[in-house]
Amino acid sequence: TDAAGAGTFSVCVSDVCSNPTATISGVQSVCTGQSATIPVTFTGVAPFTFQYNNGVSNQNVTTSANPYSLVVTPTVNTTYTLVSMSDAACSGTATGSHTVNLITPLNATLNPFSPVCANAPLQTLSGGSPAGGVYSGVGVSGTTFNPAVGTQTITYTVTYATGCTRSSSEVFTVNP
Questions:
Q1: At 7, is the pLDDT very low, low, confident or very high (cuts 50, 70, 90)?
Q2: How far is the C-alpha of 94 from the C-alpha of 115, rounded, in Å?
Q3: Tens of pLDDT along 49-59?
Q4: Cα–Cα distance, 105 to 110 (Å, whole number)
């Protein structure tokens, strides 16, 4: 309180207020619809409060974690920029930005299968596109299907070098 006891004031002591910081940096790519994790690192005394801009609006976060994992799910390529920060004692400096680029690979497709009889031999699976995918389902082994298991849904999944996956399914009809 002041000398008259009528109000309050705060004092920033130099060893307590040592200009806390929040920092982000980098670029990463994620598949459309997936989340990205952006590490935010701090100096100072927790809890930390920071504000970042997601390209549309400012968002506020308070945390005691250091580093903090900011999880975002952008719908377009987005650059996240730190706007401000403070720690338990003082306002500080927020620096850096982190760009998240979206990767949208081609959809996988699978052509319909011609029906077979239950006593037919193993059927070679084909018709999946783009090349390099994997067939799966009951009765599937590699690229063959065993009609003895009856009518089944066969899925063709492509995993791209970026880690994105796309799938397509068709029913393989087995007549008695």
A1: low
A2: 63
A3: 999 999 999 99
A4: 16
Token pair of 117 as six digits: 């009889």
Q: Find the Cα–Cα–Cα–Cα dihedral 63, 64, 68, 73, rounded to 10°.
A: -30
Contacts of 76 (CB under 8 A, 6+ apart): 102
Can you tell me the distance from the alpha carbon of 62 to that of 84, in angstroms, rounded to the nearest whole number? 12
Percentage, residues of the chain above pLDDT 70: 90
Alpha-carbon 122 to chain mean position: 40
Q: Are 42 and 33 in contact (CB under 8 A)?
A: no
Average pLDDT over residues 41-47: 96
Contact 140, 110 (CB under 8 A): no
pLDDT level of residue 163 (50, 70, 90 thresholds): confident
H/E/C letters for each residue in the chain?
Answer: CCCCCCCCCCCCCCCCCCCCEEECCCEEEEECCCCEEEEEEEECCCCEEEEEECCCCEEEEEECCCCEEEEECCCCCEEEEEEEEECCCCECEEECEEEEEEECCCCCEECCCCCEECCCCCEECCCEECCCCEEECCCEECCEECHHHCCEEEEEEEECCCCCEEEEEEEECEEC
Q: What is the spatial distance between Cα 122 and Cα 142, in angstroms, rounded to a whole number?
A: 11
Nearest of 107, 99, 110 to residue 143 by alpha carbon: 110
